[in-house]
């Protein structure tokens, strides 16, 4: 599968945990959304992103990792050309 030409590339389709490579150009953003029932790991490979989680804003730079529950509303915005690896794991029932 060629993931290079896609800004949102599902690295392992039909597999869990869902793993996404997200590439954003400077100024690009993803509309606010959530992933209920999942735990999220957002690893920024390169660039700088303003990561909005609900009403909180966090500046994330290359090498940073953010972890949060999928019920939170997320909206990343690239402050410079950026690439992130996002893992969406189903929440286990304890």
Automatic annotation (TrEMBL):
Native source organism of the sequence: Halobaculum roseum
Pfam hit, one: Cupin_2
Gene3D superfamilies found in the cross-reference section: Jelly Rolls
Superkingdom assignment: Archaea
Protein name stated in the entry: Cupin domain-containing protein
Domain (Cupin type-2): residue spans on this chain: 23-82
Coiled coil: none
């Amino acid at each position: 599968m060629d993931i290079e030409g896609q800004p949102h590339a599902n690295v392992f389709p039909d597999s869990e945990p869902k793993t996404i490579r997200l590439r954003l150009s400077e100024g690009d953003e993803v509309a606010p959304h959530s992933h209920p029932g999942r735990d999220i790991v957002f690893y920024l490979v390169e660039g700088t992103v303003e990561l909005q989680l609900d009403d909180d804003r966090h500046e994330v730079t290359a090498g940073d990792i953010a972890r949060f529950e999928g019920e939170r509303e997320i909206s990343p915005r690239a402050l410079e050309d950026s690439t992130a690896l996002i893992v969406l794991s189903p929440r286990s029932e304890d």
